[in-house]
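Our consortium's second objective concerns turning raw sequence data into structural hypotheses that experimental partners can test. To show how far this objective has progressed, the report includes one record in full. It was chosen at random from the queue rather than selected for favorable results. The single chain below, 437 residues long, was entered without modification.
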Amino acid sequence: MLENFRQYIRSRQLIEPGERILVAVSGGIDSMTLLDLMRQVFGGRIAAAHCNFSLRGAESDGDQQLVENYCRQHGIPCHTVRFDTEAEARGHGESIQMAARRLRYDWFESLCNEHRYDKIAIAHHADDSAETFFINLVRGTGLRGLTGIGDRRGRIVRPLLFARRDEITAYAALNGIPYREDSTNATLKYLRNRLRHDILPRLDSASGNRFARTMEENLMRLQRAQQYIDLQIEKLRGEALRDHSVDLAALDPECLSFELYELLRPYGFAPETAEDMAGVLRNRAADSDLTASGKRFDAPEWSAAIDRSRILLVPRTVEPFRDERITEDDPRIEWLTVKELPDSLATPPNVAYLTADALRFPLLLRQWREGDWFIPLGMAGQKKVSDFLIDAKVPVPDKARQGVLVSGETIVWLVGRRIDDRYKVRQDARRIVRITL
């Protein structure tokens, strides 16, 4: 398995020479196996990240202890964080699973930004990909949702997608890899578990134990079909999309709703909105709707307006950023000493630890401005905030909402992204603040 692991990473070019990798580790058999394989192949270029979601009491704490012990034994840097996932889910009006996913990936990204990890390795494997196919099929999806799980997305890589669950189980047993079984994996409350424990085994039995191999082949064909479509859409994008304007003459009337959706999907438009837009354009072509020009369709952050032979895309109006002054006794500030600090300073994006000796209160939370600069954590020289946001590929609507925390005239935190290196926690600091925004 180790050699297959190396070969898969090499053939798929998932990790480049010299890159540093953050390995997401839950403590289960999949992620512990991934951590063991990554340790053997990449040695000192890896670190582990474990989220304690506080959902299973002592069981969650036991998972964290296992990961920390393994990392300590093998000299692997280990980042841990504890979330109040239920409170987060209630506050955002979302399911526990969605809240956990959001918290997890936001934290991984913040670790990469802070510690300069190049990739995030996730332990999804071939069986997970097949389960995702059926979940999306049941819930409703386009072709992209039927391609299973891809082996890369942005910083995220999935080096175990070549392996099936039974191969991982055999490798862990043979090599004595410690792991813990999440008790929720056995309940049939969740659709994924019903597929894993009931439906997919029946399909495998009915197919003479060939179902898993057939699914791998099907997913590969679907992925190739999606790759071809993506290539054609990119060509169309180059022909039809200029300066946030879609040239309708470049679109095929027979595929209008599909092409509109693919072109507008990066702007956040839903398939149903693209279908409505296509319906208006078809009626106009049939001369049954003479009021099509000027009609507007909204996505969360963009609006699309039909203007004769084109569609104009404009950012939706963003609510003005409201400046806030933060005093020393603000409830969002917690005062600490070096001895009171946790073992890990890894935090969610909305939390920062700062050396407070040089802070001048009240602090000012305001929107960033052209000309603003700071010294990002880990860098020796100053950098313009505008350049930092460009390098981080921050979308235009998010830039408009970007805040900075200012002490006097000095930016101490580009909120949610990076603190200033001059205010990082030092061992000789007399006072430290933990700020939550």
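The partners drew two points from this record. Residues 243-315 form one domain. The chain has three domains: 2-201, 243-315, 324-436. Both points have been shared with the crystallography group to help prioritize constructs.
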